[in-house]
Design a protein that fits this description.
The chain is mainly alpha-helical. It is built from 10 helices and 2 strands. Helix content is 65%, strand content 2%.
Length: 276
C-alpha cells in the first residue's frame, strides 16, 4: 500500500458527521432571567426604602418561576443548563432576596437575633433547593417535601407588604412587636422549607384529574379576594398554605399512612404514576 492511498490520521473523514454545537434555548431561559431580574430589582427597591415595590417584585418572580418550566416542557426545550439556571435564580429570588428585604425592613434593629433569623431563612432555602434537586426522581409528585421556596418567600414578603400598606414605617426602630413578628415568621418559613412535612403541589390536579365544581367556585372567589385587597389576600393564602403541610402530616399520621413523601420503591403498584 502506497502512502497516497492512506488518509492522514489528523484529517476528519468526509463520511463522519461533524459534532453539533450545543445551544441554549432562548424562551425558557429568558423567563428565568426575568425572574432573576425581578429579585434583583426587589433588593434594590428595599435598599431604597420602597418596600411595596420590593415585595411586588418577588411575587412577579414567583409567577415567572412557575412559567419557565412549563414553557420548556411545552416547547420541548428542557436542558441541563436550564435546570441549573433555574435553581440559581430560585436561590436569589426566594432565598437571598426575601431574607434581605425582611432584614432591612424589620430585623436589622434586633442585632444578632435579626441577622441570625435572616441567615436561617436563606440557609433553609439553599438546603431546600439542593434536596429538591437530588430527590426529584423519588418524591411523590402530588406533594413537595417541605414548604416550596416560592411559598416561603411569599409568606415573608407578604407580611412586609401588608404592614407597609397599613402604614408601618421604620419598623426596625419604632415597632418592636412587629419586628418580633417578622422574626418569628422568617424563622418559621426558613425551618418549614427543610422539614419533611408534605405540602400539596397541585401538579396532579392541574393536568390529569377532574375537580369538583366547588373547586372552580373557590378559585373564582380567591381571584375576587386578591383583586379586592391584594396584599392581605395573598398573605392570607400563603399563610394557610404554610400551615397546610403540617395539617396533612398530622392527618396522615392519624390515619396510619406514611408521613414521608419519599418513595421506598418507585416500582410499587400503589405508587405508579406518582413519581417523575
Amino acid at each position: 500500500m502506497n502512502e497516497q492511498s492512506r488518509a492522514p490520521a489528523d484529517e476528519p473523514s468526509e463520511a463522519s458527521p461533524r459534532p453539533r454545537r450545543k445551544g441554549i434555548y432562548v424562551l425558557p431561559n429568558a423567563i428565568t432571567l426575568g425572574a432573576l431580574f425581578s429579585a434583583f430589582y426587589g433588593i434594590v427597591m428595599a435598599m431604597n426604602g420602597r418596600f411595596e415595590a420590593a415585595c411586588i417584585a418577588i411575587f412577579v418572580a414567583a409567577v415567572l418561576d412557575s412559567l419557565d418550566g412549563r414553557v420548556a416542557r411545552m416547547t420541548n426545550s428542557q436542558s441541563a443548563f436550564g435546570e441549573q439556571m433555574d435553581s440559581l435564580s430560585d436561590m436569589v429570588a426566594f432565598g437571598a432576596a426575601p431574607a434581605l428585604i425582611v432584614y432591612i425592613w424589620a430585623l436589622k434593629g434586633m442585632g444578632k437575633a435579626g441577622w441570625i433569623a435572616a441567615f436561617v431563612y436563606i440557609a433553609g432555602a439553599a438546603l431546600r433547593l439542593a434536596r429538591f434537586n437530588v430527590n426529584i426522581g423519588v418524591v411523590d409528585k402530588r406533594f413537595f417535601q417541605g414548604m416550596p421556596s416560592p411559598a416561603a418567600a411569599a409568606m415573608v414578603v407578604g407580611l412586609v407588604w401588608v404592614m407597609d400598606d397599613a402604614g408601618f414605617r421604620n419598623v426596625a426602630l419604632t415597632t418592636p412587636w412587629l419586628a418580633w413578628l417578622a422574626f418569628g415568621i422568617t424563622l418559621y418559613a426558613g425551618l418549614s422549607m427543610v422539614t419533611n412535612a408534605p405540602f400539596y403541589s397541585f401538579k396532579v390536579v392541574g393536568g390529569r384529574r377532574t375537580v369538583p365544581f366547588a373547586v372552580l367556585v373557590g378559585i373564582v372567589l380567591a381571584i375576587a379576594l386578591i383583586a379586592l385587597d391584594t396584599p392581605r389576600a395573598l398573605f392570607g393564602i400563603f399563610c394557610a398554605y404554610g400551615l397546610s403541610g403540617y395539617v396533612v402530616y398530622a392527618w396522615r399520621r392519624f390515619k396510619g399512612k406514611p408521613a414521608s413523601v419519599i418513595a421506598t420503591s418507585i416500582d410499587e403498584p400503589d405508587e405508579k404514576g406518582l413519581h417523575p
